[in-house]
Amino acid sequence: MTEISARDKTTKGVSQKGTTTLAVRVLELVASGQASSRAELAELLGTAASTISLTVAQLVERGLIAEEGTQSSTGGRPRRVLRAGSNDEYAVAADVGGRHARIGVVLPGGGVRDVANVPFEVADGPEAALPRLVEHLESLAEQRGRDRLRGVGLSLPGPVDVNSGAVVMPSRMLGWNRFPVAAWLEERFGVPVAVDNDANCMVVGEQSVRPAEHRQSIMVKIGSAIGAGVIADGRLYRGATGAAGDITHIRIDGGADIPCSCGNTGCLETVASGAALVRILRERGLDVASTEDVVRLATDADPEATRAVRRAGDHLGQVLAANVNFFNPDA
């Protein structure tokens, strides 16, 4: 009896996990516009129509999916059209960079509203920087109604332990190591908080709008440092310790003996990152203080900036070529 009971509990746990995963995929497909009916969902996911109908009904009940109108079908009765979101619940989110943060409101199904850039100095440390960011996020919540706030999301430019919601051994975030970012925010907002690496967040967002048959991809983010997010078999791949895609500290010949923020020399970051481009152009006598300045000069066809950006692209391409050959992604 004990063995049967244990087996039943295990089976129930697996079943609940599978149901949750299916609901997430259904919501992703509807929100991205890849599916607008139960029949399309069943075909894309290779799942029984009855299972899809049950999942859709649960999402409709929770206000994450709405049904409206009908569309003609090749046979049988017209299909109900599905779209993401039907209630007024929302989350607030921030994409944090070295010198600024991009904030906004996230609606059911993934729609984004009230997007703005606000000052954020990651070098000030979490105790000083986070309270200022919270003021901006709370302002968004007050405008929409605090009682309808259901979550807070934060993407950070460093390795993140998603289980603890903390940055782990970041090379450019002095004072942030092991600071409990998620717990700190949960205490202030009183709602669930999700914290992850910025490149991981970017690749998940990109995957949500790609064709359903594309299930392997690499997304590269170049800021002060360089990060990459990896999608394997349609899902975010973190690796054994959560560091999958951390290409910024791969050593390359072009890096020579240039010191890196990690303590080593010759890393990709030292010759191809935004911080590297700022350093290189300043050494050549240009008045630059940020990655935005580099982008402005390159956009204006400044020869020194164009040359530096192209050279950085060569270095990055060498590293990515090896990863592409090994991983064989769709994009």
What does this entry look like structurally?
There is one protein chain. The protein is α+β, with helices and mostly antiparallel strands and 331 residues long. The chain folds into three domains: 16-84, Arc Repressor Mutant, subunit A; 90-204, Nucleotidyltransferase, domain 5 (2-Layer Sandwich), CATH 3.30.420.40; 239-327, Nucleotidyltransferase, domain 5, CATH 3.30.420. Helices cover 42% and strands 20% of the residues. It contains ten helices and twelve strands. The protein has helices spanning 2-31, 38-45, 49-61, 126-144, 181-189, 198-208, 269-272, 274-283, 291-299, 303-327; strands at 65-71, 79-84, 90-96, 100-106, 112-119, 149-156, 160-161, 166-167, 193-197, 217-222, 226-232, 235-236. The strands form four sheets. A five-stranded mixed beta sheet has the order 5-4-3-6-9. Strands 10-11-12 form a three-stranded antiparallel beta sheet, with helices on one face. Strand 3 and strand 4 form a beta hairpin. Helix 2 (38-45) packs across helix 3. The chain is globular.
Mean pLDDT: 87
Query: Could you name the CATH topology of the largest domain?
Result: Nucleotidyltransferase, domain 5
Q: Return Rg in Å.
A: 23 Å
* Named CATH architecture of the largest domain: 2-Layer Sandwich
Count every helix, treating DSSP H or I runs of 4 or more residues as helices: 10
- Cα separation of the termini: 51 Å
In terms of quaternary structure, the protein is single chain
The CATH H-level homologous superfamily of the largest domain = ATPase, nucleotide binding domain
- Helix-strand makeup class: alpha+beta
Counted beta strands: 12
Helix content: 40-55%
Describe the strand arrangement of the main beta sheet, using strand numbers. 5-4-3-6-9
